[in-house]
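Record 1 of the preview.
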Amino acid sequence: MDVRAVVVSWPEDAPRGAVTRFCVEHHVSRSWFYAVLQRARDQGAVTAMAPVDRSPVRSRQAIPAEIEELAVRIRKELADTGWDHGPVTVRHKLLELGIDPPPAASTLARVFTRRGMVTAQPQKRPRSSYRRFEAAMVHQCWQLDAFAWPLKDGSLCTVFQVIDDRSRMLLATHVARGETAAGALAVIDEAIAAYQVPQMLLTDNGVAFNTDRRGTTTQLVTHLRSLGCRPITGRPYHPQTQGKNERVHGTTERWLAAQPAPDTPARLRALLDLFDTTYNHHRPHQALQMRTPARALADGPVAIPPTPPTPTAKSRWEPVRAETHKVSINGSVQRKKVHIYIGVEHRHTTATVIVNGQTLTIFDAAGTLLRSVTLEPGKTYYGKPT
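->
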């Protein structure tokens, strides 16, 4: 400021060479000296004392006000109807409306933050920290999971959803009163009837889905193996393995929360049918390069359906025989390494087991039929009948 003040008050009768000596002494250029001096003569000494503002009138990254307002309106409409409303989705909507090229997603993110429309979530892990996987072909791997949703009276329903791992297509949805084996079988059979048998089915370790890690076999697993499908599970307490299904659950729940509360399971199913149609055929998916799941499913490639296992050869004939076994304290009969539950009320009693090939029929001491089971390969515990 001291140098600028001297230039502003430079005398007109300064001796020849004084400007050059002044510029060399204070390490400024002659062009800067004369620019400041001319500005002082044209605009006044006070104005010349302030540096020239060289910032552009409008940032090159700024977008027209009308496009900014349109983007804000689109985001609010998407949020109000329960759909994803991030900057990538809003940018795609602008492109559909003919704004070409639309503002960058990063620019829209700054606009939404400046408008107070973004809630910071510093606790969330960055996307780069996750190891993402995707099946190489359509119908190579499906994912099955369920979530609870309340009806208008407060009672809960369970929503089963099956998605294709590669295309994210919602293949089938089923509403039941609880997370049961019957519901899991129903939604899988619905998806298979509409498409094909998958090569693999990924679930969590829920009792309605897959309990192989507990040493037992569920109805769903038995059914899938009979079709040639390989049931697999994620690591316990690690829901990220089923991340695609968890993600669609979140989208579904957010959309349902924006709708009138259903009063019956049938009404809930009608809402979910509407959601499935929009999700599969009209909502572009960021993980699919903004294609819809239906488009990604059609693009393939499609996996070859698995071949059901061939029936095992019949074992040699064995005569029917009767065996006597003591019922354990937990109400089970043990024959070799197989445990069959018959009820704690029979503990410490003696039961008769009739062995007919792979079928075991159990009677109490009075000759009352207690239970009959057909042994399955690899299964060592037969719990309470469902």
